[in-house]
Amino acid sequence: MNFTKFPRRGYLQGQTPIEPMKNLSKALGGKVNLYVKRDDLLPGASGGNKTRKLDFCIADALEKGADTIITCGAVQSNHCRLTASWAAKEGLECHLVLEERVKGTFKEDASGNNFLFELLNVKTRRCVAGGSDMMAEMEKTAEELRAAGKKPYIVPGGASNPIGALGYAACAEEMMNQLNTMDLSIDHVVVPSGSAGTHAGMITGMVGTNSGIAVSGINVSRTKEVQEEIVHGLAEKTAELLGVKGGVAKEDVCCYGDYVGPGYSLPTEGMIEAVKLFAKEEAILLDPVYTGKVAAGLIDLVRKGAFPEGSNVLFLHTGGSPALYAYLDTFRG
Ligand SMILES: *Cc1c(COP(=O)(O)O)cnc(C)c1O
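Above are the sequence and the pyridoxal-5'-phosphate SMILES. Below is the predicted complex in structure-token form.
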């Protein structure tokens, strides 16, 4: 894979660590060896996976002469926080359209990521009802900004277009280089599957590096079938952009839809257990919306014996811990 064909801002500052999770592996019975790739430690305010995607998306925006970034997300969006973060660093204006996916959850003075939007100098935050056409809403904002003489650039939700997904194809290559250097043979990689750029990019990169390692996505909002369709579509487009010969086969895409619970961002018992267990055993902070549910899936799969005994399983930690501070009642209650 050749990433030098694409403009990039160089946000990464080296590789994120791959660490064994010995305590957690033991606590879960010791039959599977768990590892974690710490993308929660990526640069950008409070870290997380969107930095890898924005490395390419913001470069594209600057190449196109933008002076303003518009993006969208849920009311506690990590993607919006990181977009605001890199916009601040680049001296670009940042405008957000927030989708109130759960009615009554947008609070102007809420903690967590919402508070960070303010600190990171977001110019406007406009909240729209759940189910709105977010691209159309962002276009409205762009129209207003153009009328005011600005040059806006729209980053789609989660930066999950083929340009953003390049960030996770590059992550797959980074990970393979690390594993080869460590001489660590991983049997299975488990990633979150939300707006799908992370999962689709990772699969594209694993195919592009001929790694032979299975990747499973754990859904945070959709059913298995719907999500697999979305991930495969984006992986195909990413493979085409990157020139990965043969593309990505449908069989390479595997999603679990059993850990969403009542819906996106709504707590589950498994999530609460996972957040507490990772903190207690590994001093790793997960988040209630994404990685907590993904880890709940991982824990359940280990307990059910879904991975053969002695397997090495790597969990991609995509960040999100600022959202914990908007969910204190969930963890204390
Ligand atoms: C956005 C996000 C994800 C999901 O990544 P997608 O590329 O949207 O599927 C996972 N974890 C965290 C913390 C996120 O912010």
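Residues 3-48+160-332 form a domain with the Rossmann fold fold (CATH 3.40.50.1100).
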